[in-house]
């Protein structure tokens, strides 16, 4: 049961309207999460800016895989539906790779290192070990890339926490828990 109501267009604060309209135009509809998040122009626009900046980090398959791994750890059903959909339709990841990502892995060794590191960051709240850093660096990631992975973990956690608190009505296909698949 949703704990919030997505804002109707006439309820959206003026400072959130341009950002929400941009997402609506790009996606083709207004996701309930965004129509709820838009109630706070400060938080919504800050998140949108971070999302836009981090869309240039790494590659789309790695970004979506990190989103899946983090959302699985944070048990965010809304985000798992969104990231499963985008991983399929935008990143073009096959179903087995989507499931692997949700479990914190990938068949590609370099992407696997990034996803494993991201999962370790969220599970340990950033208190990763030296071996974790050594492994992600050995896979070919620079310190700048590692910073981007941490930033992606934080950004996905923000939306996970938001959606877990407000539980907007689902408007992306639901997915089963990875443990039950």
Automatic annotation (TrEMBL):
<feature type="domain" description="Carboxymuconolactone decarboxylase-like">
    <location>
        <begin position="44"/>
        <end position="103"/>
    </location>
</feature>
<dbReference type="InterPro" id="IPR029032">
    <property type="entry name" value="AhpD-like"/>
</dbReference>
<protein>
    <submittedName>
        <fullName>Carboxymuconolactone decarboxylase family protein</fullName>
    </submittedName>
</protein>
<dbReference type="Pfam" id="PF02627">
    <property type="entry name" value="CMD"/>
</dbReference>
<dbReference type="InterPro" id="IPR003779">
    <property type="entry name" value="CMD-like"/>
</dbReference>
<dbReference type="InterPro" id="IPR004675">
    <property type="entry name" value="AhpD_core"/>
</dbReference>
<dbReference type="GO" id="GO:0051920">
    <property type="term" value="F:peroxiredoxin activity"/>
</dbReference>
């Amino acid at each position: 049961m949703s704990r919030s109501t997505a804002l109707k267009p006439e309820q959206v604060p003026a400072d959130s309207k341009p950002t929400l309209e941009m997402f609506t135009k790009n996606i083709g509809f207004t996701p309930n999460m965004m129509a709820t998040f838009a109630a706070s122009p400060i938080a919504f626009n800050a998140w949108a800016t971070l999302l836009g900046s981090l869309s240039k980090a790494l590659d789309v398959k790695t970004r979506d895989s990190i989103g899946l791994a983090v959302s699985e750890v944070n048990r965010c059903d809304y985000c798992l539906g969104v990231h499963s959909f985008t991983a399929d339709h935008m990143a073009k990841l096959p179903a087995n790779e989507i499931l692997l990502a949700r479990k914190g892995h990938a068949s590609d060794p370099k992407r696997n290192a990034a996803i494993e590191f991201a999962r370790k960051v969220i599970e340990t709240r950033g208190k990763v070990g030296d071996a974790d850093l050594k492994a992600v660096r050995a896979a070919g990631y620079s310190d700048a890339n590692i910073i981007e992975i941490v930033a992606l973990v934080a950004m996905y956690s923000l939306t996970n926490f938001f959606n877990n608190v407000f539980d907007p009505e689902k408007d992306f296909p639901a997915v089963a828990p990875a443990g039950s698949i």
